[in-house]
Amino acid sequence: MTRPRPHPLAHAVAAALLLSCGGAAPSTAPSTPTAPAAPTTPTPPAPTRIDTSWDVSMLGVPPVIQAHYIDLARIAAISRFRSGIGHDYSDDVERCRSMKHYFRPAGTDWASVRIVSPVTGRVTRIIEEWAGTQIQIRPSAWPAFGVVLFHVATARPIAVGDSLTAGEPIGTHVGTQTTSDVAVWVTLPGQKRALVSYVDALPDSLRAPLVARGAPRDSLVLTRAQRDAAPLACDGETFVGQDPLPGWVALR
User: Fold this and answer.
1) Which contacts of 170-175 are long-range, i.e. CB under 8 A and separated by 24 or more positions?
2) How far apart are CA 1 and CA 132, in angstroms?
3) Which residues pair with 78 in a beta bridge?
4) In terms of Cα–Cα distance, which of 121, 143, 142, 123 is closest to 133?
5) What kind of fold does domain 64-236 have according to CATH?
6) For 52-192, where are the E strands, in sequence order?
7) What global pTM score does this model have?
8) Counting Cβ atoms within 10 Å, is residue 84 exposed (0-12), middle (13-18) or buried (19+)?
9) Could you state, in order of their start, the residue ranges of all structural domains in the chain?
10) Per-residue pLDDT of the chain (252 residues; tens, 9 = 90+)
11) Which residues make Cβ contacts (< 8 Å) with residue 236, sequence separation at least 6?
């Protein structure tokens, strides 16, 4: 007996039911895998005002310094910030005072005292001084600030734009003709520049060796009020007369 052939509509209904239940017809050729999308480099945020200026009066002095620029074991005394030691070195805010620190080595072999970069950053200026080289460095982490090293006998050529790492050897102090000195400046809102104490820019870990040698922060920094109450006289950059306040702090 001949069986009846299924009507073509039956095949169509069966296929529809299969697809509705999640089935799928086998593919005649394997699909080509899609290559993963290339990773995109995130766009760095636009610089903010705090990148190029820093309000010291509101925010204080941050721990800019990452390594002592000089071998403290070789230092006998440090001048006080705003002292009458050396010559007038002041800023856009204050006048007639030495707003840096002098580091006086012990003994007589001053030319062997090692100098290193106090921060990781870039060299922004080189000045050949009457004794050695002045090197100005802008810290990468604190671009509103700059560190100035004076009277360095460089061990190798150093140029503007060079990158330095905190603790990287630069050279030595130039010699007994002058003491070593260091300054730290900051660009304030409004683009004025102010000088701040190197000691104030130290983290606690770098201030501890000074404290251990009898030189806590307050002994090394005259406040603006203290200096204004005992003013110095200046003829150009030269101090005139005697400073009524002690200028040096001896390290024990």
Assistant:
1) 170/115, 170/116, 170/117, 170/135, 171/115, 172/111, 172/112, 172/113, 172/114, 172/115, 173/70, 173/105, 173/110, 173/111, 173/113, 173/115, 173/132, 174/110, 174/111, 174/131, 174/132, 175/110, 175/111, 175/131
2) 118
3) 103, 249
4) 123
5) Glucose Permease (Domain IIA) (2.70.70)
6) 75-79, 101-105, 114-116, 121-128, 133-139, 145-154, 163-164, 169-173, 180-187
7) 0.80
8) buried
9) 64-236
10) 444 444 443 444 344 333 333 444 444 444 444 545 554 444 444 344 346 899 999 999 999 999 999 999 999 999 999 999 999 999 999 999 999 999 999 999 999 999 999 999 999 999 999 999 999 999 999 999 999 999 999 999 999 999 999 999 999 999 999 999 999 999 999 989 999 999 999 999 999 999 999 999 999 999 999 999 999 999 999 999 999 999 999 999
11) 88
Measured CA to CA, the distance from residue 222 to residue 217 in angstroms comes to 10
In the chain, which ranges are continuous DSSP H helix? 8-20, 49-52, 56-59, 204-212, 217-220, 224-229
> Residue 88 corresponds to which amino acid?
D
CA distances from 186 to 54, 92, 170 (A): 7, 11, 23
Amino acid (1-letter code) at residue 129: E
Q: CA-CA distance, 204 to 65, in Å (whole number)?
A: 11
The whole-angstrom separation of Cα 139 and Cα 130 is: 26
d(C-alpha 250, C-alpha 252), whole Å: 6
Q: Is 220 exposed, middle or buried (0-12, 13-18, 19+ CB in 10 A)?
A: buried
